[in-house]
Amino acid sequence: MKNALHITSSARGDQSHSTRLSAAVVRKLIGKNEISTLVERDLTKNPPPFFDQAMIGVFYKHPATIDEEERQLLAYADTIFQEVSNADIIVIATPIHNFGISAPLKAWIDQLIRFGVTYDYNSEGVRTGRLNHKKIYLAIASGGSLTEWPNSYEFIESYTKAVFNSYVGMTDICTFRVEGTAANNFTVDYEQIIQGL
Q: Going by DSSP bridges, is the β-strand pair 2-8/127-129 parallel, antiparallel, or unpaired?
């Protein structure tokens, strides 16, 4: 039995297809007795802060050099780092907005990634992630059909894999997609999409 973190990031709330797809993943994992505890984080109800000059300056300092006043700027970042650190399984839901992930999810990633916390550099100058051995399930929803787009338009999965691999150390990422949600009379069977899980 494992700890899981479920992150949703759509402004559509319960009507969101990415949220519903990720919820189906969570239900399936619970049904398989793979989850013992579940933490839910809705990034639209508690939005991550955007960087300002003071905050970004602290982010690039080594944790050992940060004073108490600067630590206050890291309150949100420290909280979500602890959630990710405690999780064995992370389920992330995002709609596709203009070929990219949702703005709240991008801000959450920016708050998570930190030198000396999620990644370091080894003696040879190679960047290494510090939070490996975790499983990520990525639930993506798009109004159009991704299969009709040129391969060069695919940013979501490649970006997610790159950022979590390079800056966090997570390489085990499984992606589920629901496509064409903007079509008239759209219907979907979320359980069918994740049947291989």
A: unpaired
